[in-house]
Protein 1
Amino acid sequence: MKRSATAVVVALALGVGAGAAMAQAKPEQLVKQRQSVMTLQGKYFGPMAAMAQGKAPYNADIVKRNAAFLDNLSLMPWDTFDPSTKDVKNSGALPAIYEQPGKFKEAASRLENESHKLYTAAQSGDEAAVKAQIGAVGKSCGACHESFRQKQ
Amino acid sequence: MGLFFLLCTTAAIAQGDAKRGEYLSKAAGCLGCHTEERKDATPYTGGRALKTPFGTFYGPNITPHPQAGIGRWTFPDFVRALREGGRPDRAHYFPAFPYSSFTRISDADLRDLWAYLRTLQPSAQPSKPHELGLVFQSRFALWGWKWLFFAPGEYKPDPTKSAPINRGGYLAVALGHCGECHTPRNMFGGPKKERYLGGAKLGEGTSAPNLTPERLKKYGDGELKDILTSGLFPDGDVMGDTMSEVVRNTTSQLTAQDLDALIAYLRSIPALPDEPK
């Protein structure tokens, strides 16, 4: 619910101007933006993964907050993957993103869906389900990195 | 009494220790190629596709089933496969089966691995044939590959290095076969030795990163241990599927001592700059 409400607010705030603004963004800026989203996804996912793997004590409040952040962050990277960013230096994005747009879209949707499921699970407070879903989110990250990102 | 013990120990050595073999099998990552990729796949029954520039290889069934698996093999057959890269019928294996690495496995470890494989539940699942380009279909040509690039024999510890570094070297070189992906290959598919673990392109734009101190120096030992047990980088970044699986099946399964040794070894190898992109 919260997510769709946020989406509506964002859509209203940006209006139709968003598309035009996007078209003008410099490739370097788009890369910087998506790398920022990825950095924050790592920031909020990392501690949850540590909890799921038993490396850190489970904290339901942190999971609830981080899952909500991640649920929104998972929607943000995709409109920055513009073909104009292909030649930007310091980007690990592979050409496969633009050569196999269907497969890339699928990988992106998978992250969105798994992140949303994690948000729902975190609200329910079922620790075992939450931990399993953290694993599913991690797998969706890894699957996309496997095919579409230069190894770090 | 002493003689009794001696006999028992000798028998144990001759038969191999299946429990140790199970650990070695994890350290060697056998599961990865010899198991299908689907969720409910039975381990070691074969089926995983390995895509290479030379074609697609499928890891065969290695359970002790007499027809579908390796149930009719003898221990010398097993040794020939891993140490010499040869089938029981003397044909050569394709180096997609990393015998260039496995040849370095010690005699004792081969016995334990064999003992473990004999304990698996036999599965009748047939192995899939490889799908290879015409040029690469001939196993005879492999004779040339072996002559050029294959030097059989156990791992030789470096007497100038510490015991942990040598143990780590054995784990990385012989069992872990890290170089199969992380060392670049020449046009004939042979490893570029002077670029050992320097990182390599793997086709389809993907690559295996540099594992020499040049890149690893940015991580502390604790961070490296976390990376190799969690599949996550310190910033929460998640590694790609292939290495995630290696972490799940192999590096996270190592004893704390072996993991330390592996890291000590990686710290000791020559630092190499990244491959040009």
Note: Chain A has one domain: 26-148.
Protein 2
Amino acid sequence: MQFGIRDDDKLIVDTLSVFAAEQLRPNLRKAEAARTPSSEVRVRSAELGFEALDVPSASGGAGLGMLTRVLANIALAKADAGAALALDRIGPSVYVLDAFGGAETISQILDPVLRDAEARVVLVVEPEDRKLSAGDRVTGTVTWTPSDHADLIVGLGPTSAWVMRGETSAEPVRSIGLHAAGASTLRFSGTVAAAWSNRAAAELALAKTRLYYASLLVGVLYDSSEFSRKYAMERVAFGQPVAHHQGMAFMIVDMFTAVEQARLLIEDAARRIEAGLDARQHAAAAFVEAVDASRFVGPNGVQILGGHGFMRDFPMEKAMRESRALGLMAGGVERARDDAANLAASEEFGGI
Amino acid sequence: MDVTLSPELKTLIEDTREWGRSEARPAGLEADRAGAPLPVDHPYFQKYMDRGRTRGQRFSNDLEPAPEGRVMQMVVLGEEAAYWDRGMGVAAPGAGFPSGMVNAAGTPEQKERFLGPFSRHTTPHWASFALTEPTGGSDTAAFRTRATRTEKGYVLKGAKCFIGNAARADWILVQATLDPSKGRAAQRAFFVEKETPGLTGMKIEKKMGLRSYESVSFVLDDCEVPIENLLGGERSEESRGTGSGAYATTMGALNATRVAVAASALGVARAAYEEARRFAKEAGSIRSQRVRDKLEFMLRKIRGARLMTLQAAWLADNRTANIVESSMAKIATAEVAQETAALGMEIVGLEAGAGDSIVEKLFRDAKALNIVEGTGQIQRVIMARNLVGLPR
């Protein structure tokens, strides 16, 4: 059992943390209003190679593992989860392409798209398989996606996946949050460029996708927990810092614990994936834990700041909205809960 | 979670499991049904001795090396032992909890005199540690039991309660104060040997759960002990400035054992989860999504709490401060044990209500884990001191 951070990961996390603190955090509201990070931030992010961290090296990526991605996402989302999404043009779609097609497929499909610096690949996690083949027509609507456009659609069903090139229309929506990545109702209609059927690949891709969003969510929860903790130590009420009133102190402690528990479960599941172990149940449970924690931590981040928490002058209202938004991703928490419960109930489940 | 275990630790786990299955659990159930700890001459204890299972019998620097780290090893084995019966772990013969304090603060003579025999005993013997008093347990800095210096030694006056194994102990390490007005600086620990005049009023409490070990209340009625029974000896008074350092020693010992209690709570939680899952499978109720959801919740919370506990152990083994992490683990594991046992009873249903399922015993046992060695509230205070500088 290993809890310490690997030297390589530490270097990446430290670099991204500096980038997040210097480039993302000061522009939090600006990126939100513009529905995109600035071009300067995009250039700097591209230099850091954030989006290619866990793209296989045979496809031109850094070829690092799931744990590295999880740590990187947490580091960036502590500053701005919306920007973190916007700066990763591929997002978790890469897990689908990798699981079903491998490195060659990733290069073949993504390279033409990624020539555009502002391209977005949108992953659509669907509850049913579409049973598609290459050349078939595919149409659909995604009511909300944190993007203002889609240059490629990747679909992931329970046992299958497909890639669509073709017409997409993105109708801007107000949305609950993650505005720095955009927000739209996406309508797509086009030809299936590739389609696969493979339950194991689909389940692995979904497990990784859950960890991708869960780690962004935990980053936001860290922000809720840490920002409000520091505020509570400075803000004075009844002659002492509000954090020193025990009702407040215990809440801060419980928020800290909730975030830690989610983080540990996410990192544990990511380690399992890196080790080639079955992590389906662990990843689903980690996602559920992060989402459950968000309902406690996000609103209490606002609560600790009182009226200020409710105002846009402080980032806690944004963190509360975005923690809720991220919990809706990756097929949603109820599906994750079902998967975690059903896998744990199955005969082959290996135990705690 | 994949824990890579060394072959040495795997052997120890298997040994603990075998003992737990064949001896500790049946013994724990026997005590629970009898409503009282097993008597000192119960064959279980001699069997325990015969297997060479004495605790604290070796001085700390002679312990076996543990590739995973000593605290990590303690956590893994502690969980396994508590899985079978948490109470029988506490009831086990040996110098137990106070041995850590004696090793940390005792003089060489005290180590030999009080711990030495435990490495030679072939029949069951116990030692005990007395901190809690009738007027309070969590505020360890506010003992009322008084120690007064006399010509021959110290006279102890006061009362202690809920003390593990005290009625059967060869000696009890008793916390007392030389001067209540001086707070922690005046606290000391004294060896009070069995049959010492004034050590009186032993009462074995009747408990809701964890019935397999003694929780004892007793009175120190002008109980006189020799100077040599002051932990650390009087010579340390001047050199250390704060006397035998009983308060610091006590808190140090409690910090170390917090992770151990967390490990035992994990064992209780896992036992409840596995029994509920087994029952649900046999009864067919596992087909219900609601039952599956409960089992998933139990599993997830146990896994998360275990990761917290292992993290705290890992930090300790790597000589990194873990006060926040160990308190967090203690909170999480104790609450998970209680919640898991409670949900386990819902899954098992009336059979548990009738008292026929081990889940019912675990439900009664688990509650204590959020009380002993720092309640959940005290752990939050400790965390808050570190996270937000909560004043003392």
Note: The two ends of chain B are 38 Å apart (CA to CA).
